[in-house]
Amino acid sequence: MLQETTTAAAAGGNNAEALQQMSFAHLLQNFDTVGWIVFITLALMSVMSVYWIVMNFIKNMRLRSTSDRVISTFWETPNAQDAIRYMEEQSKSEPFSKIALDAAQAAAHHQRHEGSRLVESLNRSEFVDRALRQAVTRESSRLEDGLTVLATTGSTAPFVGLLGTVWGIYHALIKIGATGQASIDAVAGPVGEALIMTAIGLFVAIPAVLAYNFFTRLNRVTNNKFDTFAHDLHDFFATGSRVGEIGSKR
To answer: Where would you find the membrane-spanning parts of this chain (predicted)?
Structure first.
């Protein structure tokens, strides 16, 4: 009985020691240079992805709350100058007002240079169309800020974590071979500890992938709004008639 009690106590001590070796704190204490590089890389990826997730979420929510108001106010304002003045009063980060202002500036610039080579080479419709294309491309590119970071994090973080795991298991096996202890208690701790790096890599990658897909979908909807608004602006500044006016005059 005493021998069984002693054996159970020894086994319990070994299990407790193995569990302690599988802890995150123990992992940090046994990092070498490569381990620290992998861990710091994953930490930086996590910080950058969280930053861009928050920034893109705020940007998209703000854009969603103001876009319809800006568009409807522009078309509902009877006087074109008042509508343009309203656009000038919008925030610098508001894209629809910038697109409208670029179209208005292009139309005014073309009108001021009537009789010049500019007017001869491009008519009013073509000149406004070119300005609108450039404005939509610019604002669409700004919508994608941070998406490259999220895509890179989502695709590479699991492999960075796997690199840390492989390196940790390699050192664990070397340590086990040096001590001559090949029991499950001796193997479970170091190997389980190394596997934590894979878990960290997945923890960093999964939110980045989900956020990338979410923001890509939101940007697609916003880009469709850009195109629709730009087409309406082109008709307005090229013909001088607002949306719906041409059809109502027929």
So the answer is: 34-54, 147-174, 194-215
Side chain identity at residue 236, one-letter code:
F
Q: Is 200 exposed, middle or buried (0-12, 13-18, 19+ CB in 10 A)?
A: buried
Work out the average pLDDT over 29-49: 86
Residue numbers of the domain that contains 60: 27-109+138-239
The alpha carbon of 122 is separated from its chain's Cα centroid by a whole number of angstroms, namely 39
Under a CB-based contact definition with an 8 Å cutoff, are residues 132 and 230 in contact?
Answer: yes
pTM over the 0.70 mark = yes
Tokens representing 137? 């491309």
In sequence order, what are the residues at sequence separation of 6 or more whose Cβ sits closer than 8 angstroms to the Cβ of residue 190? 21, 168, 169, 171, 172, 173, 175, 176
pLDDT in the model for residue 104:
87
Residues in the chain: 250
CA angle 38, 42, 203 (to 5 degrees): 125
d(CA 91, CA 98): 9
Report the domain count for the chain.
1
116, two tokens: 């010049």
Whether residue 172 lies inside any domain: the answer is: yes
Query: In whole angstroms, how large is the CA radius of gyration of the chain?
Result: 31
Residue range 95-131, pLDDT digits in tens:
999 999 988 888 887 777 665 665 555 677 888 888 8
* Mean of pLDDT values over 145-160: 94
